[in-house]
TrEMBL record:
Coiled coil: none annotated. GO terms for molecular function: metallocarboxypeptidase activity; zinc ion binding. The keyword Nucleotidyltransferase does not apply. It holds the Pfam family Peptidase_M14. This is CBPC6 carboxypeptidase. The active site is at E192 (proton donor/acceptor). The gene is Agbl4_0. Its cofactor is Zn(2+). Transmembrane segments: none annotated. Residues 1-229 form the Peptidase M14 domain. Keywords: Carboxypeptidase, Hydrolase, Protease. Belongs to the peptidase M14 family. The keyword Protease applies. One of its GO terms (biological process) is proteolysis.
């Protein structure tokens, strides 16, 4: 087993959730890309599995998805407004995930380092993130590191569309609630990806998203943890071919 899974080992945890809004199908493809990459034999995936623990809840609103709802659960709740006090009866998935996150937060052997909630956006292009606003300037700057690194890895990710806010209307969202609950070593983001296209180069060159392109964004999110934790030197490189002698 990886060193970080041995009993008593300290764990750095990355918690990822998706599809809290059932109509936002791209969210599932991005999440699928993350999962497929992390369980693959890719040399980067092996290093990530050795150093980090990924907890993934790929569908927070299964009943809404089953019913073909756009935003709500079976009982008509927008689950992404109920993180502050989820009911085990009315919002069981949120209740379960939140309980798990709080348990991990209270465990001195676990550092919950990232929470990323994946959504799709109906009016903006590209992938981008929402983060939180903090009074502490240094914490605010540190929070910008991951999206900046992701921007270098993913051509369809836009740092200029990434924003940090504290709108009242977003108070019950996973990112906002957990950003307030967890301490300043945890980073909470909403990862948004456009329903339709991303722009490369000039404004005229919009490229329609495909399922594969969404999954590629997921793979790039996973790879970015390698840069964030400066683990690049641990990746096994394929041996360089020996130069042919003339």
């Amino acid at each position: 087993a990886a060193a970080n899974l041995r009993p008593g080992a300290e764990q750095k945890v990355v918690f990822i959730t998706a599809r809290v809004h059932p109509g936002e199908t791209p969210s599932s493809f991005v999440c699928q890309g993350i999962i497929d990459f992390l369980v693959s034999q890719h040399p980067i995936a092996k290093v990530l599995r050795d150093h980090l623990v990924f907890k993934i809840a790929p569908m927070l609103n299964p009943d809404g998805v089953y019913l073909g709802n756009y935003r709500c659960s079976l009982m008509g709740f927008d689950l992404n407004r109920h993180w502050a006090n989820p009911s085990p009866w009315a919002h069981p998935t949120l209740h379960g995930v939140k309980q798990l996150i709080v348990e991990m937060y209270n465990n001195p052997k676990i550092n919950l380092e990232f929470y990323i909630d994946i959504h799709a956006h109906s009016t903006m292009m590209n992938g981008f993130m929402y983060g939180n606003i903090f009074e502490d300037e240094e914490r605010f700057q540190r929070q910008a590191v991951f999206p900046k690194l992701l921007c270098q890895n993913a051509e369809d990710f836009s740092y200029s569309s990434t924003s940090f806010n504290r709108d009242a209307v977003k108070a019950g969202t996973g990112r906002r609630f957990l950003g307030g609950l967890l301490n300043d070593t945890s980073y909470c983001y909403t990862l948004e990806v456009s329903f339709y296209s991303y722009i490369l180069g000039g404004p005229a060159s919009a490229v329609p998203y495909t399922e594969e392109a969404y999954m590629k964004l997921g793979r790039n999110v996973a790879r970015t943890f390698l840069d964030y934790y400066r683990l690049n030197s641990l990746v096994e490189r394929p041996l360089a071919p020996t130069p042919k002698t003339r």
